[in-house]
Every structure is written in C-alpha cells, then in structure tokens.
Amino acid sequence: MTDKVSVTLAINGREHVLSLAPERTLLDVLREDLRATGTRRGCDAGDCGACTVLVDGVPLLSCLSLPVRLGGCDIRTIEDVDASGELHPVQRALIQYGAVQCGFCMSGIVLAAKALLARNPSPTVDEVRHALGGNVCRCSGYARVVEAIASVGGRP
Ligand code: FES
To answer: Are residues 59 and 119 in the same domain?
Structure first.
C-alpha cells in the first residue's frame, strides 16, 4: 500500500487539506471524498470529457489528473458555476435551445464552454465545435449544444 501524502487543494474558492494516496485521481477525490458529484465519471480513461473541471481557467480531465500535482491551483467544478444562485449564460442558453437530453455530459460541456467564452467572448460555431472536441454527448445532441453556446457570444 502506498503512503498517503498531504495536499491542499483550492476547490471552488475553498481550501481542502487532504491526506491522499498519491495515485488517486482528482475525479475520485471530488466525487468520493468531497461529494462534488456534479463532476461525472464517464469513461474514466480520458476519452469522454464528462469529468472536465477548470484548473486555473483551463479545462482539465479530472479522471487523468493527480491532486498531488494541483496544489496551489484554482480548481473549479460545475458546482461553482451557479453558486451565486443564478444560472450561467451558457446554462440558460442550453435550456433555451432545448439542448439538454440525458444531461450526463453537461457538466463537462458547460465548463468547456465557460473556458472558451472567457478567452473568446464571441466564438464562431466552428470555434465552439473545436472547443468541445473532447466532450462526448452520448445522446449525440451536438447541433443544439453548439448553437446554444455560440448564441451566448452573439453568434446564433
Ligand atoms: Fe474523464 Fe471520460 S471520465 S474523460
């Protein structure tokens, strides 16, 4: 058995001091230790994007990320997106466009879209598609998802 290591993670603006086996993933820690279950476990292998979180504003697959390497980083999960009580414009647009089907992929998609809009406030449809290239929707409802996100930047 591997010795545990101590790590301090800043998640959604709050510091968590944790003692972890070094091989545990950020996805494990979020879902199992911190009960932040909005971050989804899809493939658990880096292929689907359901487990996407933002680390210093950049989308990261939490199923492939080791918390012991993320000390000092600003980690944001889907729970942070509407923590103020207001839906994010991306969430509102997805609802307005009827783009949510089973919803399993939505945490990752919302965070990937949020990161895109932070660096490019008015993305083209192609730029939205590219930014969501790592996010698989098992209902295959991509067209409305892309239209909804592009509409947030004023490009319906
Ligand atoms: Fe991480 Fe699929 S669960 S990419």
So the answer is: no
Phi, psi for 19 (deg, rounded to 5): -115, 115
pTM (2 d.p.): 0.95
Share of the chain above pLDDT 70, in %: 98
Length of the chain: 156
Domain assignment of residue 123, yes or no? yes
Ligand 1 atom closest to Cα of residue 42: 3
Of 31, 61, 77, 138, the residue with max ligand 1 atoms within 8 A of its CB, to mutate for a pocket test, comes to 61
DSSP state of 68: G
Number of domains comprising the chain: 2
Pick the residue whose CA is nearest to atom 4 on ligand 1. 46
User: What's 47's domain CATH number?
Assistant: 3.10.20.30
